[in-house]
Amino acid sequence: MDFRSTFFYKYRRFIKAIKIYLLLSGPGLIVMLADNDAGGITTYAVTGAKFGYGLIWFLLLMFPVAYVVQEMTVRLGAVTKRGHAEAIFDAFGSFWGWFSFLDLALVNWLTLITEFIGMTAAMSIFHIPPFLTLTVVSIVMLLMVLQGRYWTWEKIAIAFAVLNLIYIPAAFLVHPSVGEVLGQGLIPHFPGGFTGTMFFFLMANIGTTIAPWMIFFQQSAVVDKGLKEKDIPWGQVDTLVGSAFTVIVAIFVIVVTGTVLYGSEVESAAQAAATMMTTNPYLGTFIAIGLFDAGFLGAICISLASSWAFGEVFGWAHSLNLKIREAPWFYACYLFALVSAGGVVLIPGAPLVLITLFVQVIAVTLLPAALVFLILLLNNEEIMGEYRNTHLQNIAGATIVIAIIILSTLYGITTLFPGLIGP
Amino acid sequence: MTMVTVENVFGARLGSVVRRMTDKITAINRKYAQPRITMSRGVKISLLFLRLYLLFLVLLLGYKFWTLLR
């Protein structure tokens, strides 16, 4: 074959691979970009304002962490054709099943409230009242699922996920010094020393990287999408690409706030956006839109994760490919989650800050169990067959799971007892 | 003596809904009564660790609640 023939052949193969990827991608990309939800963006924004570019190196470490954990859900979903809630019931019995399911339902509902808080805070910067924001968001979220096809829902969700990348052009608007970003960001160090505050922020960043709903969501999404064992490599690529994007977005949020707000007291991403609005309206608008989109992405994934789990446990029909009359309880759960969580946000004087803190503590009770179950299931030959974890995967998985359990537990404890590990 | 039933407590309509729900939960418990996974030593140790971990968290939350009340 001459050069032109070889080039054309390879080009065709590449285009074909891209087409297959676009067809099979989705759950990994969506879950990873939704990982940068309203709470996540707030954590990164505050981290940037407090430590500048100093902790970018730490976020890079989150890339393999996110990938290793989420990749296991792809294999488990594709092989068992079951969501994580159902898999726990089946493998570990009703005690652990009910514990995981009820804990998930509670933590998801509380997290959904925090997503709505983020969305209303972002839109209030544009003087849009919370009631209007919540109404429109709820209608859009309902329309997304009621169209009756998983594929359509997924592509709409990916469009919103792509909007999450708005922080990349936002970073170019603030003209950061590339030398400073690379110099301060890529060399592992702890700006200001390893203090209690620093430790709290490190744990907060880990806490936003892996959340319990992500495990349940991606596994159920893989099942609903109908991925089979032969599709696992594509699911892995999807998760890898998603993991890269989630870290990239996090880094760019830190670059924005680290450049503009370094040294100032910032408590939330909404506050950061409002502050930027006064100095650079374009930048403030980008940050506010990004925060809204982050909350929206989180909300669509979390509410679906809960509905899928309810369907799996109670044996109701639970697929986005079904119409309302075919899966009434599945859609009723989804609607109830939206209306109840939105309703709490609208209650005057509702303890929203307390809810936000409580989410972190409740998530800590579920995350270790979900991760341990994941490792145990992935090691069971009867369930996983040839797709069970290799020794290398077990070493990586176990190391990450143990580290996450220790750090997320400390995070929960320091949330309960602030100042326990010093200033 | 009349036996206390779900229907007596909640009324006929709501009672039947509660009855269906409790029946469903009973059926789920029966279906998943036996864990499918082989209870190897590793699995047993992991589940024991989780139970102790959760007990620790419950005690911690209880302590926090107690200190808040004081």
Key traits:
heterodimer, A: 423 residues, mainly alpha, Amino acid/polyamine transporter I, 79% helix, 0% strand, globular, B: 70 residues, 2 domains, 77% helix
Question: What separation lies between the terminal Cα atoms of chain A?
Answer: 69 Å
Taking the sheet with the most strands of chain B, its summary is: none
Rounded to the nearest angstrom, the distance between the terminal CA atoms of chain B is 46 Å
| Unreliable spans of chain A | none
Order of helices and strands of chain A: HHHHHHHHHHHHHHHHHH
Please report the total strand number of chain B as a whole number: 0
Profile the largest sheet of chain A: none
The stretches of 5 or more residues of chain B where confidence is low (pLDDT under 50) are none
Main CATH class of chain A = Mainly Alpha
Judged by helices, strands and strand pairing, the structural class of chain A is mainly alpha
CATH topology of chain A: Amino acid/polyamine transporter I
Give the CATH architecture of chain A.
Up-down Bundle
Strand content of chain A: under 5%
Shape of chain B: flat
Beta-strand proportion of chain B: under 5%
Q: What is the share of helical residues of chain A? A: over 70%
Number of helices of chain A: 18
Could you describe the 3D structure shown?
The complex is a heterodimer of chains A (423) and B (70). Chain A is globular and about 55 Å long. Chain A is mainly α and 423 residues long. Chain A has a single domain, classed as Up-down Bundle (Amino acid/polyamine transporter I). Chain A is 79% helix and 0% strand. Chain B has 70 residues and is mostly helical. Chain B folds into two domains: 34 residues; 34 residues. Helix content of chain B is 77%, strand content 0%. Chain B has three helices and no strands. The N and C termini of chain B lie far apart (46 Å).
